[in-house]
Amino acid sequence: MVSSLLNEYTHKFPAVRGMQAGRPCYIAMCPMRLIPKLFVFDEDVVPPELRAQRRLNESRVPDITHYLVENPDSYTLSAITASIDGSVIFEPVADTGPAINLGMLSIGMDTQILVNDGQHRRKAIEQAVKEAHELGHDNIPVLFFVDEGLTRSQQMFADLNKHAVRPSDSLSTLYDHRDGGSKLARYVFECVPCFKSLTDLESSSLSKRSSKLFTLSSLKQASKALLGKRGKDPISEPEMQLACEYWEAVCSNMPHWHDALERNISTSDLREQYIHAHGIGLGALGEAGSDLLRQFPNNWKDKLTHLSEIDWSRSNIKQWRGRAMDNHGKISKTRSSTVLTANIIRHALGVSLGAEQQHIEDQLTS
After folding, report:
1. Can you tell me the distance from the alpha carbon of 283 to that of 286, in angstroms, rounded to the nearest whole number?
2. Are the beta carbons of 313 and 273 closer than 8 angstroms?
């Protein structure tokens, strides 16, 4: 078997040999230009029951490609996991000692390699190398397992994804230093005292016993709405300063928030009793604030004093049902409910409705 493989054309990689569940595995650094050639798999002609991977979600690929092309000096890619359907040769650099597991891994060029984890990275790498050829000289770690048949490969896919947990939107916002919206959220968090004390940085939903009122992800979305930003729109330093100034003014006109800050009322009681203690309230304040800043650029702070005139109580069913709450009194989180909640704020602040906002309002009252 070894001699036949050595007579074939092979891919050779410096690798480290290890064992998992009694089976040999190999970790190798592969040039990214070879990734499309190594992992060839025509999913269109292979039914799911004969595959070891899910169908490629094409919509995920452009974002990864863009990330690689736009950040050639600072991107990070985790390892691809793959199964080798054929023979391999591992030639250690030494016969004894620790170096016995360091060596060269040879894989026949005709050998089929199935991706168990990382098919979207593989496709994105293929496209990124076409756009930025220099990326082809970079390396990505690949964990190779010697294939024991389709059943084993399918089980590997299931095992690898069974315990995978996507980080919360708040945690992603906290750690993402490329995204402008995330930078904005962290900036506002740092400069507005009530947010600094009442914002959860890790969770995207609050438990009933949470000591916080807001999540970093909801603060991000509300602040982007305030500045009229979508997607990856750039956000300037003056815009971030304006966002801080706005939210500070809002906080000064929210006595219940200060009560929570001073621990005069528990955050759980506040969430149970008031609309403005929920993400929809924060989002609506951001949306209404965007129109406020545009329509009253010189005296918007004075207008915010009217926030205290709004009855934020959830018991005010006539005002909030169909807006911030559904017919059962549960907080609603739809796009239209945010607009309708913001319309109450707009009315209190003397802000006129736009065409879309009026259309949604008319649908509620018709």
Report:
1. 5
2. yes
Spatial distance between the Cα atoms of 339 and 343, rounded to a whole number of angstroms: 6
- Report the distance separating Cα 28 and Cα 123, nearest Å: 19
Residue-wise pLDDT tens digits, 312-344: 999 999 999 999 999 888 998 899 999 999 999
Q: Which residues contact 139 (CB under 8 A, 6 or more apart)?
A: 29, 30, 31, 32
Residue 218 pairs in a beta bridge with none
Q: From the CB of residue 309, how many other CB atoms can be counted at a distance below 10 Å?
A: 9
Which two tokens mark 347? Answer: 């009315």
Reported as a single tens digit per residue, the pLDDT across 253-292 is 999 999 999 999 999 999 999 999 999 999 999 999 999 9
* pLDDT value of residue 153: 58
Rounded-to-integer distance, Cα 241 and Cα 46, Å: 54
Look at 282 and 39; give whichever has higher pLDDT: 282
**Residue given tokens 């036949």 in the structure block:** 4
**C-alpha–C-alpha distance, residues 83 and 252, integer Å:** 59
User: How many residues in the chain?
Assistant: 366
- Give, to the nearest 10 degrees, the angle between helix 237-252 and helix 180-191: 40
pTM of the model: 0.70
Q: Across residues 174-187, what is the average pLDDT?
A: 91
CB 181 within 8 A of CB 239: no
Contact 28, 105 (CB under 8 A): yes
